[in-house]
Structures are given as structure tokens and as C-alpha cells.
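As described in the Methods, two query proteins were run sequentially through the folding procedure within a single session, without resetting any intermediate state between them. The first query and its resulting C-alpha cells are shown here.
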Amino acid sequence: MKVLFVSSEALPFMASGGLGDVAGSLPQALRKRLIGCRVVMPLYDTIKQELKDKMTFITNISVPVAWRRQYCGIFQAKHEGVIYYLIDNQYYFKRDTIYGHYDDAERFTFFSRAVLEILPVIDFKPDIIHCNDWQSALTPVFYSAFYSKDPWYQGIKTVFTIHNIQYQGTYGMELISDVIGLDPADTSIVEYDGDVNFMKGAIECANKVTTVSPSYAGEILDPWYSHGLDTILRERQWKLQGILNGIDVKNYDPETDGAIAMNYNVKNAKEGKAVNKKALQAEMGLPEKANVPLIGIVSRLVSHKGLDLIKGILDELLHTTDVQIAVLGSGDWQYENFFKDMAAKYPEKLAIRVGFVPALARKIYAGSDLFLMPSKSEPCGLSQMVALRYGTLPIVRETGGLRDSITDSGDGQGNGFTFKTYNAHDMLGAIRRGVDAYWNKEYWDTLVIRALECDFSWGKSANEYIKMYKQVLKD
């Protein structure tokens, strides 16, 4: 089986979030299971020069963008056994940032069309083209409209994965004639609620639509989660499936991680966690107390990550409970200032570092006892899995991938502490249950070992994807 994985970002070349992690890890896991998976992505100007130096120029072609044709250079690179194709066009991709430009619609329309145009040139005909999020959502649309009846392309199936339904690629209807170039008879494919909606087009045209966790696949049928797409998703529910993401366990490994103070595994977890906790307290300017529960937060500081819940009870928690909290993140000024104010009020209990420092994030995963992630919605979430990988017990709300990966330890079998309703005091109750468990030392040691033994490697997820691919080819 041959799969072309289409993504606007992929490690090691470019990543701004979870999509880049997935596109860097899943193709490797598929190849290890004898699936011929290759990746195609844009050649951004901001990709590191040492990675560019290892790329090979194949050729160039021109790609139709509505009424005009645009240059498309094709470069090839290899990483960890996976072949990557990088689409070059400096007009579209020579930018300081990869998203957030006035012409993003045109940039990723070009990319989505280029994916199909390069296939005969690189002599790779995949069985499955697997597209991800709105930036490549037009590839299934273009395949259906322009390529499906071409003898060379016939028989290819398309899969579309929704990583975050909030970002759909919604633009004005003028895009159809000026940028997308669909025939008038096909405009209804991408039209939704009076706009052009890239994601809606992919949901219509792809053979299969997946999300990054089973629970999220159910949640996006509900208007509260769907950002307006619940109607079309309910109509196409028969093609919808959720597969939980994994994490790169080689990259996130407490036994080899060079960023943390002491490497450890299940055999020396108690000592390793203690050394890393002391180092984290020192780095964050907190008192170096060995016997106080330390809660870590690594997050974008925005409301849908549950920051309004934390804001509602933090003063009560710090006033009544012997805990320390280490926060790393950036986002809305109100939350940044709130944590700064709380750090000033409780300097021995809370410290914040504004920004995103990858090495410090790892130190928080390794040095914390508990990890707080009370999201309003979370398609999959990776932080809770990374926390477990470092033996840190997550406190999460039961939503999306958090619900699918974390079960409450109240039954003696779980791997964290959960709460269901989006309520600040329900979250506070879960935090206090985590703190109580910390003081039960024998039980706590068992929980830490259980966390370290959780397996969220890509292997299990890759097997689910392969099963899904085989079903798509059979249908």
C-alpha cells in the first residue's frame, strides 16, 4: 500500500503545533509497518538552512490557480527513512511566518493543486492521499473535480483528517472564480452558509473523514464543538472516524532527554523525579521543598484551554493548600497578567515564565508531580501523554482526546485525575484529589510507575490508520 501524507507542516522541517508533530511521526510509524508512506509539504523560506542543504531539486512545473498558472519547484529530502517532497514557490512561501497572511487562501489553494500535479512527475501514484486540516482540504475537491476520471489518476482514494475544526478556511464566494477555479456546476461542493469553506469541501469529497480522537469525532456533531459544521458532519457521519494520536516516544524519553537534570526510568523513578523537581524549583525561583506537590502547566494562555477555570479558583487553591505551581506559556494578556499577579502575591507557591521555551517545557514535565490541563475542548492533546511519559500525573477535563487517554485513578486503575463538567470547582475537586493522592506515598509511587508504563507510541495509532486505509480501499 502506498500513502501520500499531505500537510502544511511536518517535522523536522517545520512545525507550529500538533499537526507538525503528527506529520513527522505517523509516516515513520507507517513505514515501519511496511506502508510506503511519503510526505508532501510547502518549502517555506524559514526552514533551517542545514535542512535545505540536504534537499535535492527534481524539476519544476507550472500549476493552475484558477485562470493563471504558477511556478512550482519540486524538491526531495529524506528523513528517518521517509521521503519528503517540498513544493517551492517563493511568491507564496518566502514569508517570515507560515500562516496568518492576507493571501493564505490562494497560497494553500496552490499547494493543494500542486500536490496532485506533481504525482506523474515524481512517478508516485499513491493508493491513498491523506490530507490534513483546511490548508490541504482542497486536494480531495480538486481530485474529484479535475483528476478522478483521468486514466493515470483513476482509483486513488482520499482521506481527510480534522485536527482542529475551529480553523476551516472560510472565505468570500469571489474566491471560486478568482482562486479556486471550480466549474459553476461544482461550486456547491465548497459553498457553506454563504461562504467558501475549504474544510466543508473536503468533508464532501474525501472517501473518509477522520479526527484525532474517538471522543472528538462524536463531539464535533454537537453545535457546541463544531463551529458551524455539525449539519454537514451529521449528514456525512457514515464516513467519520476518530483515531487517537500518539507521541514521539523517542523524542520524549526521560531515560535519554538531555534537557532534564537527571535521566530516569521505572527503576529509579523516585530518585529521578526528586532530582528534576529540585532543579525545576531552582530554575523557576520556587523554594526547593522536596515534600510539597508541584503542579505543572504548559499551555497557550487562552480561554479554551481552561484558563478561565483556573482564574476562578487559583487564589482559593493557593490560600488553602500546600502546593507549588510552575507555569510556562503565552497568550492573552489578561491571563499572562493574572499569573504574574498571583506569582507576586504567592511568590513561594507560584512562578510563571511567559513564552514558549521547549527545554523548560521538558523540565516541567519531568519535575512536576501533577500536570493541569482543564481544556474546554481538546481534539487530541499531546501534553497529557508527554506528562505521563515523564511519570507526571495529569489532571484533565473529560473532553476529546483527554477523555480517551486519561482515566480517573479513583477506581485504583486509572492514570490521572479527571472531572467532567466545565466548572471551576469541579476542577478544584480533581486537583485536591490529586494532592491527596500525593500524600499517600505508597499509592503515589504506584501511580508514578503506572504513568511511566503507559504506551502512547505511534505504533498503536499507526495500526488503526492502516486498518482504516484498508477499509477505504475495499469500499
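Immediately afterward, the second query was submitted; its sequence and C-alpha cells are:
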Amino acid sequence: MVLALKTSGIRPAAPTFEEIFRDSEEAAASLDCEAPVLCFSPATLAAQAKQFIDGFSGEVAYAVKANPCPKVITVLAQAGVDVFDVASTMEMEAIARICPGAELHYHNPVKSRSEIATAWHAFGCRRFAADSHEEISKIAQTVGSSIGVEIAIRFCLPSQKASAHDFSSKFGADENTAAELMKRAAQCGFAPVLTFHPGSQCTDPQAWVRHIETAGRIAEAAGITLTRLNVGGGFPACYSGSSGPGLATYFRAIDDSVSAVFGDNPPALECEPGRSIAAPAFSLLTSVKLVRARSADLFLNDGIYGGLLEVTQVSDLLPFYRVLRNGQVVSTTDQHAFTVFGPTCDPLDVLPVPLLLPSDIRETDVIEFAGIGAYGMATATNFNGYGSVSQVTVKNAYTGDNNC
């Protein structure tokens, strides 16, 4: 998609991804937002990564699925991230192009034999996740009892109600099975690791405490000294209906729990954040296509088949938003609740909650959504011919609530 500058005459050369605007307000004032525009702040992304690198007591691996944009991977590598949590060989290929030699953790617990072989031979992957005897057998039969291979046994606890997405419904062995899997991995010649995921956008630090206590019991039951423990992702980003107490609180809870459970012989820690690193670095500029004043219906040039999919899954993940007109924030107490539709010819393409917007909102006004960097464009489609999104670079990201 070619970005166009606002002009009354001949359009000048379109800006590239490298062109830097002061902020999204300047971008909105300068650009024709006929198609949605992503505003990316490398500085915000690097700062988020630094919070983990400096604050977490262990290795930080970026969960690529949250946002696999090459620019994101490049900035994170420059910030010091050299381990990546990958869920497919395609993600491995993407990382290898940008960061050859980076360590890859293949933490998808279900893989085909072909995928295991490709990860092993083509990308030098030496970490594979499993949550069943069958998966360990596949790995062993594919790579053999090779020295240096780690099997990350993924375990789970019952649904964590503080999370937006419950991973235990799909992945993870129960406590007793996990102990058996640890022993099985060791018998196959692999180094057993324990890993868990408390659920995406988990707002309760005690969820990590409960999992770490379970990890201690699993290792004890298996009779194996745990040398590495991956505490997963799930660290929350900031949305209008959901945010956590701050990363330092999570890191302190993890450290205290590991100390209490493992004493003087703690395992080396790992985490694999995705959302909390990537989300704040992007905002999404969407343009108003039509306002039906009588019915309070509003149509945007993006919707649930684009960058706003997650809002339909969990309404708490509605981003902070604001209205821009000619690059200026529209600030008014005269607001009205509008039903917001996306651009496709599909009745499902509607936000599940109304948005409070200025009563005089009009065509070509821009609604900007903050914190769209994780699972925004990563899950977008081209349904109905929509889906083309341009990107620009901004120095300062719009993050919504500065208290988050």
C-alpha cells in the first residue's frame, strides 16, 4: 500500500517506512489515511525490551507470534534480545534471515515430524517443547538421543481467570503427567526443562507463583534436579479494560517464589514475553468512512478482519482510543455512543462494544487505537479485498493512559 501525503495538487513522493514523524498526530495531519496506517515507535519497543532485560532475573526470549514484523525483530536484536520463542519453521526462517545464529526455542507443543526435522537440521534448533508421551517419542525418533537437546515439558494448571486467553484449554500436561514426561525425556537422553504459560494478558502475579510451586513439586516427583525453568509469557500490556500492576511486581513475585521453592539451588530462569513488549510500540490510525447520525452507526476503514480482531474475542482488550481531526486531538465532553463497523460486507465486522466518540464526529476524522502492536496486524486478513495497511515511523508512540 502506497502512503499518500495530504495535498491539493500533485502528490509528492510517498513517504517510506523510514520517514520519521514526531508522533502519530503529525502523521495523521500529513497523510491521507484512505487505508489504515500503523505508527511504529522503535524507541518505545526498545524501552519495553529493556524493562525485561534489566528487570527479569534470567533469559528473555521474544515470542515472535505476537508481532513478526522484520523491523520489530531488528530493533529487538539491537536492544539485546538474542533468543526467540518460535511456533513454526516459518518463524524460524524469518528470524534466521534477520538474526542468523540466534537461539530458537521451539515451544509449540505439537509439531509434525517434518517440522521437527527441519528445525533440527536446517535451523540448528536444540529446544523442543512437549506435553505428551507421543510428542516426546516423535522428537526422539526424529533427532535421536542427541547430546545438547532440551525438552521443555509444558504443564498447566486449571483455567487462570485473570487471563484473557486460557492456554490450558489446548496445551499443557497435568502435574502427575508432567513428572512422568520429565523422567521420559531424561531416559531418552534429553535435558528436561519445565515450562508453563499462565495465559495471555494475565493480570494476577500470583498466577506465576502457583505455577512455580507446581514446578517444584513436579521436579521432586520426577526425582530430577531442575536446571532451567521457563515462566512463559502472559505479562500484560495496557488496554482500556485490562492492565496489570507493573512489570516490577511480576518480576518480584517470580523471584520470591523461586527462592522459596528451590532455595539455594534455583533453576536458571527464562521468560518469553510477546504482547507486553510489542503492544505499546504501535498505534493504528483508522479513518471514518461514514457516519449514520440517526442510528449512531459509524464505519471505519479497518475492523475485526484487520487490526481489531482481539476486541471481538475479549472486550477487555479494547485499546485506548482517541479522535484526531487534521492532526489535532478532538477533546470534548459532548460525546455519544456509536456502534462501530469495519469496512467489509459482513455483519460480523462490528466491535462488540460501542465507542464513546464526539457527537460531531465526521467523515475523514481519524480514530487512533493505542497498543495495537501485538496480535493486531499479525492476525489481520485480506477479507473482501481489505487488509492493506501502511506503516510509518514515529518518535513517540500514543499509548493511551500514561499511568499504565
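Residues 43 and 67 are 16 Å apart (CA to CA). We note this only descriptively and draw no conclusion about the first query from it.
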